[in-house]
Amino acid sequence: MKILITGATGMLGVKVVQALLERVPTEQLAVSVRDPAKAERFKEQRIEIRQADYEDPASLEAAFTGIDRLLLISSQGDDETRIRQHSNVIYAAERTGVGLLVYTSVSKAETSSLPVAEVHRQTEAAIIKSGIPYTFLRNNWYVENEIPVIKNVLAGGPVLTAAESGRVGWVPRVDYAEAAAAVLASGKHTNKIYELSGIPSSYADMARELTSILGRRVIVRNVDDKTYQEVLIANGTPDVMAEFSLDIQRAIRKGDLDVESADLPYLMGRPAISLKQSLTEIVYYLNTVE
Question: Is the whole-model pTM more than 0.70?
Fold first, then answer.
């Protein structure tokens, strides 16, 4: 049995590999990377490194040859680029006879209004159409995405949001990585869709947890869409990213990340890391490193 992780040098991929090393022998693991020179850490761990580029179908077929279980970590870029790259991976997996294709998707992929959702909708549909046995891991939101919010709080500012009372199932990447590793190691989750989420919490909940952690009152400032975008831009956020962030806030407001599910603890065999613990670790990191 051979497992391959795509995008293995990314922030999620690295954590999946580490979680897998606790579950399967090293010789059962392989990683595909665009630039092997950036994969020295895997070489030191004696993990097989295969060169592959999402834009090069031939390299993908070569990398996937002999692979039983494949993790497709969604790529980066605009929607058109990502959909094309994912299609290349699916086609190569089909051509090489991959036995299980595990894909990192997004919460409520069928209906979500998140700006990243269309890529995941189309990718899920393409995987199902291919006939390859699959597992969809619909990841909620990385708590690490909120580091700019936490930095602002540490500088004396509020928790700024336009999401009103919308809730998010924040957990750190390490939990999503552990769930992915559990699926890949067991191979017992064929044609399953898992909604992976922590306990849904609002930005007001985040402010309360930060108040407890910091020992001083942290307020939440709910603003309208226009004000939210203007504040981000005034603080140096590029216009395009400010619009993207606002779209996320709108989706949270609609409930697109409000997911109550036991799938994540089920796959990990333990409770998800709590919002308070996650925020505590981020605050410690920011105060120590930066």
Answer: yes
